[in-house]
Amino acid sequence: MKILIINGPNLNLLGEREPEVYGKQTFNDYFTSLQFKLREVELSHFQSNHEGKIIDKLHEARLHFDGVVLNAAAYTHTSVAIADAVKAINIPVVEVHISNTSARENFRKHSYIAPYASGVITGFGMKSYELAVLSFVELPEKND
């Protein structure tokens, strides 16, 4: 099984950006440990601060991956274009957030992506990514 993790804007600063919200670990360090822990899954990751590059990567993913774990970050709450891309591709997408977006500012409570996602996982820190990947492994029929 091949899963692509896509991270949106400002997530390249994990480990230094608002550690009280996002923790002190960099994504690259976390990703290395996730690959080791879930060796049965071929994991790749991509990060961009640019909406169009995220859309292009979603389009590309449909040709090479069994599913996508998407943390669109702030674009979750603003991007109809990314939501349309999720809707358009023929592979399952699980939306993830490190923080509990429902317990934060009001604008973070709405997701344009959620209606087209197979599921949404929020508030478990970096563990949210692992839970999302495990949803593909342990609940494959849910993601079809």
From TrEMBL:
Signal peptide interval: none
Presence of keyword Cell membrane: no
Organism: Mesonia mobilis
SUPFAM superfamilies linked to this entry: Type II 3-dehydroquinate dehydratase (SSF52304)
EC number: 4.2.1.10
Catalytic residue list: 22 (proton acceptor), 97 (proton donor)
Keywords, ordered alphabetically: Amino-acid biosynthesis, Aromatic amino acid biosynthesis, Lyase
Described purpose of this protein according to its UniProt entry: Catalyzes a trans-dehydration via an enolate intermediate.
Binding-site list for substrate: 71, 77, 84, 98-99, 108
Family, similarity comment: Belongs to the type-II 3-dehydroquinase family.
Subunit structure: Homododecamer.
PROSITE patterns tied to this protein: DEHYDROQUINASE_II
Lineage of the species this protein comes from: Bacteria, Pseudomonadati, Bacteroidota, Flavobacteriia, Flavobacteriales
Pathway: Metabolic intermediate biosynthesis; chorismate biosynthesis; chorismate from D-erythrose 4-phosphate and phosphoenolpyruvate: step 3/7
Record-given protein name: 3-dehydroquinate dehydratase
InterPro entries, per database record: DHquinase_II, DHquinase_II_CS, DHquinase_II_sf
Chain positions of site Transition state stabilizer: 17
Entry keyword annotation includes Signal: no
